Amino acid sequence: MSVFNTIWSFIAENYILYVIFFSGVLLISGLVSWLISKFFLVFLVRRLFFATHKQEVPLEKDVRIAGKLANMVPVVAVYTLNQFIPNLPLHMVDSINTICGILFIVYLANLINEILEIINLSWVRKTRKKNHSIKGYIQVGKIGVHVIAVILVLATMSNKSPVIILSSLGAVAAVLMLVFQHTLISLVANIQVSTSDVLQLGDWIEMPGSDISGEVIDIALHTITVRNWDNTISRIPTKNFITEAYTNWQAMFASGGRRIKRSFYIDQLSISFATPALMQSLERLPLLHQMVEETLPADKPASPDESWFIEQGITNVGLFRQYIARWLGKRGDIRGDMYLVVRPLAPTAQGLPVEVYCFTSSTLWIDYEASQAEIFEYIYAISHYFQLNIYQQPTGSDFRRFTGPPSA
């Protein structure tokens, strides 16, 4: 004990050693408090914040929050201990207090930003089915936290009130508006996109002007990220979604029907009035003949002649069109409660376009393409039973038939 008193007396009598000793005490106290908080704050955070749903919150969140708090504990410990050490140089005390104040503000801002990030991740995990994103608002909150932290740091360093710092910033408000103009524009665009509910995570969008077609995977403050169907990633400025045209296909998925709107061309030279010979040829296919008979007038004679078809205005293309409409209505992969039309369009140099307009019962791309392929393959194959020719431009084989075999 006497040795300790002797050492203490020697330190107390030597002012430089006194200052060095207590500077070391402050550093050691900060280190010890940091180590203690690093080990025990995870348990404390879990007990205080996540006790009601321990199984739902991964341990990573505890570690992240505890890590930010552990950085603040030694700052508070050094600042508090510094107030109780006598006879330290006044400028040293003020410097330590200023440094502790600045570090506390920085670590507190980091803690708040970490909490905001955890809120964002939790929101995405819990509301994934609703597909709403709050990432833009979280980023705005982080910017606000950083701005407030900078103002408080400047106030601490200058030992002035934050109100004075804010009033002095009024002179550079125009410069700040110029610097943050893109952020402000993006904020307004993000609010409009989020509140109007026109764009959500998981939506399929197309922007023809930017050659973008894919799924929205992230909605941030400045950009919206889209994974294109070729697995490339595109980032579009948020403001573009209120200034440029784009198509959101999500309503199509919600409706449960995907539209087929496609035409095939009939050679106009093959169009004619229906004849008894045509009806007799259709009798070889009972189901087809029955569906065609159902489209004819109810007062049809037992054995109509060619003049009857002319008087009634019944053509082979008309029978073909009505038959395709009935055939589509009986398919299980076509929605019967939505529009189903088979209609001729204005003639073109390629022939008479006949448009098929209907909706598939599956909105999946593979199912949709399979149904569309089956429908048009059937149309091309069945058309000759109605004495119709599908138009295609002349090819080399067509010209060879005209010229005959080459001369020896």
From TrEMBL:
Organism annotation: Izhakiella australiensis
Record's keyword annotation contains Transmembrane: yes
Gene3D superfamilies on file: 2.30.30.60
Keywords: Membrane, Transmembrane, Transmembrane helix
Primary subcellular site in the record, as a coarse category: membrane
Gene Ontology CC annotation, any one: plasma membrane
Molecular function GO terms recorded: mechanosensitive monoatomic ion channel activity
Domain spans labelled Mechanosensitive ion channel MscS: 186-250
UniProt xrefs under Pfam families: MS_channel_2nd
Taxonomic lineage from the root: Bacteria, Pseudomonadati, Pseudomonadota, Gammaproteobacteria, Enterobacterales
Transmembrane feature ranges: 15-44, 65-84, 96-116, 137-157, 163-180
Name this protein carries in UniProt: Mechanosensitive ion channel MscS domain-containing protein
Compartment list: Membrane
GO biological process, one term: cellular response to osmotic stress
